[in-house]
# Entry
Amino acid sequence: MKHLVLGFGTLVMAATMAMAHGGVKDPLVKARMDLMVEIKDSTGVLGNMLKGKIPFDAAQAEAARLALLDHAKAIPAAFEVQATDPKTEAAPAIWTDWDDFVAKSNDMVAAVEAADASSMDSLRAGMGAIGASCKACHKSYRID
Ligand code: HEC
# Structure
């Protein structure tokens, strides 16, 4: 487990995420929210490169893409148990339409696998499909 080799940066990040979800009591709900925040952070790095907020760097972009790939693959396991919490935004339909939920997380895996982070242009094309995969799942399974 990578969490056994915590560096200082990871500790700071974990502390920040704990604060963001301070009101969440259920550990499984908190873990799946933290997974989504990690997904948002990797997407944010790629998005910031595309927007020119940080310089494009192919190695950094590929690292963010690979992190996103790991996290996308971890979605079904993070949601397998129907844990709940007053703060959850997870729709109960996840567990009644489980196969579709897994299919939507596989769509995200496929979009991240297909994305090519070697140049700004290819990354831009790939990010469109990745963003669409987030939206497709949130539309059905995340309550705002
Ligand atoms: C297969 C379904 C699925 C996919 C794909 C998915 N999400 Fe989510 N996401 C959810 C669900 C369900 C929740 C609500 C979890 C909860 O509150 O228990 C959520 C919550 C979130 C949250 C809120 C976390 C918090 O602070 O509580 C963020 C941010 C987020 N997703 C970002 C993303 C981004 C960005 C992508 C795409 C790169 C993505 N998600 C892809 C299902 C998905």
In short: The pocket of heme C is lined by residues 29, 32-33, 36-37, 39-40, 43, 75, 88-90, 94, 101, 104-105, 108, 130, 133-134, 137-138, 141-142 (CB under 6 Å).
